[in-house]
Amino acid sequence: MRKVDLRLVPVLSMMYCISLIDRTNLGLARQANGLQMQKDLKLGIGQRFSIATLVFFIPYILLEIPVSTPRGIPMSTFGARWWLGIATILWGVVTVCIGFSNNWQTLAGLRALLGVFEATLFPGAAFLIACWYPRRSMAVRMSVFYIMSVTVSGFGAAMAYGISQLHGRNGHAGWTWIFIIQGVITIGIGILSILFLVDFPDKATFLTEQQKELVITRIQRDRADAVADPMTGAKIVSYLGTLKLWLFAYMFMCGTVASYSLAYFLPAILATMGFSNMMSQLLVVPPYVWCLFPAVTSAVVADKVKGARAYVIVANVLCLIVGTAMYSQIPASNKAGRYAGIFLAIGGANSFIPLVISWSQTAIRAQSKRGYASALIIAFGGVGGIVASVAFQQKEMAKGYPSGIYLTLALNAVNVIAVLGLRFWMVWKNKQADKGLCVIEGNPDFRYQM
Questions:
Q1: What tens digit of pLDDT does each residue of 2-56 get?
Q2: Spatial distance between the Cα atoms of 249 and 12, rounded to a whole number of angstroms
Q3: Rounded to an integer, what distance in angstroms lies between the CA atom of residue 376 and that of residue 229?
Q4: Could you name the domain of life of the organism this protein comes from (predicted)?
Q5: In the chain, pLDDT over 70 holds for what percent of residues?
C-alpha cells in the first residue's frame, strides 16, 4: 500500500493543485500591477468580474456526473490516467489562451471552457482513491490529497506576484504572463500524469498479480463492492432519492462557499485591511500553509477514533465560523486579529471539505453509487463557487463584502445542524440493523461509520 500511496496520492495532488491555481488565479491576476487587468479588460464595470468568476462553474456543475460516472464510457474506455491527464493538458491550453484575452467577454468564454475540462478531475480523483482504500484508511488519503493541493496552491499567490514582475516584457502586461506561464506548467503536469498516474486496481501495471488481489480482497472484505457494477437509469433514479447524499452535498457546498470566496477575494479583502498591493498577495500564502496541520490532524482522528468523523467536521465548521467573524467584524485597526481570523477560516474550511468527501464514501456501497455520489457532491462544490461569486459583490469590496460574509456564516450555522442530525440518524440506523429490523446499503453486515 505504500507503493500505491506514493504513486496515487502525490500525482493526484499535483493535478488538483494546478487545477486550483488555474481556476482561482483570476483574483490574483486582477490585483497584480495596480489592477492592470481590470483596466485592460474593463472588469470594474458592473458585475463583470463576478460574471467572469462564476461562468466557470456552470459547465463545471453540469458536466460533473456525465463525465465522472464510475467506470462509465470515458473512464473505462480511456482509463483513469489518460482521461484525467488529457483533461489536464486541455485546460492548460485554455489557461494559456486566457493570457491573450483582449476583452472581458473573451475572458468569460474561456473561463467557461476551463470549467468544461476541469469538471473531470475532482470527482474522478475522489472516486479513484475510494477504489483503492478501505473505509478506515480513506479520510487520511483524501485529506492529504486535498490539503497538499490547497497548501501548494497557496504559493500560487507568491508565484503570481513574481510572474507579474514580467510586466511589459515582450509587450505583455504582468497579468497575461501569469496565465501564460501557469498554463504551460499545467500542460507539463498533464503529460507527467499520463506517464505516472495509477489506474484502477484491476488495471495497475506496477503491482504484481498477488498484490492486486490483496488490494481487491481488502476492499471486498470492508464493503463488498470491489467489483464494478454498471450504471443504469433505474439506479440513477434510486440514487436521486437518497437524502443522505443531498445532505453531504449541502455540507460540501457550505465549505466551498468559504474556500472559493477566500481564494477569489482574499487579496481584495487584505487590501481593505490596509495592506499594500504586494503584501495583499504575499500574505495569502501563510494561511494556506497553516491549514495543512489541522487538516491532517482532523483526518487522522476521523480514521482512528471510532465515532469521531462527524464531531471532527463540526469542530472545523466552528473554526470556519469563528474565523470568518474575526476577519470581518474585528475593528479594522486590529490587523493582527483580523489576519488571525483568516487562518482559522481557511484552516476550518479546507479541513472539513475532504472529510465530507471521505465520510460520504464510507456511507455507501456499490461503485456506481460511489461514483455518482462523488460527482453529485463535488457538483455542489461548483454551486458553492457560484454562490461565492454572486454573494461577494464588486460594489461591496470597500465595505469588506458584508453580504458574502453573512451568507457564509448562516450557511455554516445550518451546516452544524445538518452534520449532527445525519450522525444521530446513522447511529439509529445501525441500532436498527443490529436488531435485524433493516438492512443498510443492501448488505446485512454493513454499518455506518460516524
A1: 888 888 889 999 998 999 889 888 878 887 787 888 888 988 888 888 888 889 9
A2: 22
A3: 18
A4: Eukaryota
A5: 96
What is the Cα–Cα distance from 31 to 261, expressed in whole angstroms? 15
Q: In angstroms, how far is CA 123 from the centroid of its own chain?
A: 9
Q: Are 306 and 299 in contact (CB under 8 A)?
A: no
CATH 1.20.1250.20 correct for 2-434:
yes
113-129 average pLDDT score: 86
- Give the residue among 44, 29, 42 at the shortest CA–CA distance from 166: 29
Give the residue among 249, 240, 245, 239 at the shortest CA–CA distance from 415. 249
Q: Is 30 left (phi over 0), alpha (psi -120 to 50) or beta?
A: alpha
Q: 178: pLDDT confidence band, cut at 50, 70 and 90?
A: very high
- For the chain, what is the HEC assignment? CHHHHHHHHHHHHHHHHHHHHHHHHHHHHHHHHHHHHHHHHCCCCCCHHHHHHHCCHHHHHHCHHHHHCCCCHHHHHHCHHHHHHHHHHHHHHHHHHHCCCCCHHHHHHHHHHHHHHHCCHHHHHHHHHHHHCCHHHHHHHHHHHHHHHHHHHHCHHHHHHHHHCCCCHHHCCHHHHHHHHHHHHHHHHHHHHHHHCCCCHHHCCCCCHHHHHHHHHHHHHHHCCCCCCCCCHHHHHHHHCCHHHHHHHHHHHHHHHHHHHHHHHHHHHHHHCCCCHHHHHHCCHHHHHHCHHHHHHHHHHHHHCCCCHHHHHHHHHHHHHHHHHHHHHCCCCCHHHHHHHHHHHHHHHHHHHHHHHHHHHHCCCCHHHHHHHHHHHHHHHHHHHHHHHHHCCHHHHHHCCHHHHHHHHHHHHHHHHHHHHHHHHHHHHHHHHHCCCCCECCECCCCCCC
Q: How far apart are the first and last CA of the chain?
A: 24
Q: Please choose, from the candidates 291, 292, 295, 271, the residue with its C-alpha nearest in 3D space to the C-alpha of residue 282.
A: 271
**Mean pLDDT for the chain overall:** 86
**Which residue's C-alpha cell is 437524502?**
243
C-alpha cell at 360: 460520504
Q: Is the pTM here over 0.85, yes or no? A: no
* pLDDT for residue 264: 74
Domain ranges of the chain: 2-434
The pLDDT value recorded for residue 73 is 47
The per-residue pLDDT for 99 is 93
| Residue 74 pLDDT | 63
Q: Is the pLDDT of residue 72 over 70?
A: no
